[in-house]
Design a protein that fits this description.
CATH class of the largest domain: Alpha Beta
Organism: Fibrisoma montanum
Distance between the termini: 52 Å
Strand content: 25-35%
Keywords: DNA-binding, Phosphoprotein
Largest sheet: 5 strands, parallel
Protein name: DNA-binding response regulator
Strand order of the largest sheet: 2-1-3-6-7
Number of strands: 17
Number of helices: 8
GO molecular function, one term: phosphorelay response regulator activity
Number of domains: 2
CATH topology of the largest domain: Rossmann fold
GO biological process, one term: regulation of DNA-templated transcription
Radius of gyration: 20 Å
Helix content: 25-40%
Mean pLDDT: 83
CATH architecture of the largest domain: 3-Layer(aba) Sandwich
Low-confidence stretches: 91-95, 124-128, 141-145
Length: about 260
């Protein structure tokens, strides 16, 4: 794995280097760059790495500017000192991030997520949707007293690209091999960069229901409901999935209420 670090704080850059090598001694850190100008020049002269770790705020601007100047097509993990409210923008657009000061456990989770995607798809090289990122980054976030704001779209990996997909196009979410997927109404299965626990907080509960530990389903994805003798419910979903989807006896009443029974 080859990694490029874009970070203008010397101590933070050194800590990243140490934690990366502790996580994967075979990883190659190609360079550590401290400015928009230096990063732009590097990309114009070199092939892209497997992964970029980029601080947002640099001494001469924001790292977004690098991706505006050069066409970089590889995964990016942003690092930032912004608080949790500002980071909602990155969650909405499915971009991984690390909150400063970066701890080793957080970095390991991000690198493991990258490795899982790499193992699943081969060498990933999704293009960052910079315009969506910048727009989300500059959009004010709601206060604690505001009504809940639910995610309306995600950037999802499809082959070598990240594509925007509206929540209205999503039938259900499920877990498989430590990864989270969404099945769209047209039958595509795409990787989602969140756990089901995280997705429950992002999705409108009037539309989506947490069926069990493996599934979150849209109301319109329920094709048939079978009642078992022990009080459990078995769901037939559309689009069809091979896995059996059960709702426990304890949650059957909640499911019926959600479906409007």
């Amino acid at each position: 794995m080859t990694i490029l670090i874009i970070e203008d704080e010397t101590l933070a850059a050194r800590q990243l280097q140490t934690m990366i090598r502790d996580y994967d001694p075979t990883a190659t850190i190609l360079a550590t760059l401290d400015s928009v100008e230096a990063a732009t020049a590097w990309f114009r002269q070199n092939e892209p790495p497997d992964l970029i770790l980029a601080d947002i705020e640099l001494v001469d601007g924001q790292s977004f500017e690098v991706f505006e100047r050069v066409d970089v097509r590889c995964p990016v993990i942003f690092t930032t000192a912004y608080d949790e409210y500002a980071l909602r923008a990155f969650r909405v657009n499915s971009v991984d991030y690390l909150l400063k000061p970066i701890d080793e456990a957080s970095l390991r989770r991000s690198l493991t997520k990258f490795s899982d995607l790499r193992r699943l798809y081969g060498q990933p090289s999704p293009a960052v949707d910079l315009r969506a990122l910048v727009a989300a980054f500059r959009t004010p976030t709601p206060s604690d007293s505001a009504l809940p704001v639910y995610t309306e779209r995600f950037l999802l990996k499809q082959g070598s690209r990240l594509i925007p997909v509206e929540v209205g196009d999503m039938a259900y979410f499920y877990t498989e091999d430590r990864l989270t997927f969404v099945r769209t109404w047209d039958g595509r299965s795409l990787v989602v960069d969140y756990t089901l626990d995280e997705l429950v907080q992002k999705l409108n509960p009037k539309q989506f229901f947490r069926a069990n530990r493996q599934f979150i389903i849209h109301a319109k994805a329920v094709d048939r409901v079978h009642v078992h003798f022990n009080g459990r419910l078995k769901l037939d979903l559309k689009p069809i999935i091979a896995d059996e989807v059960f709702i426990s006896r304890e949650r059957a009443g909640e499911f019926r209420s959600w479906m409007g029974d």
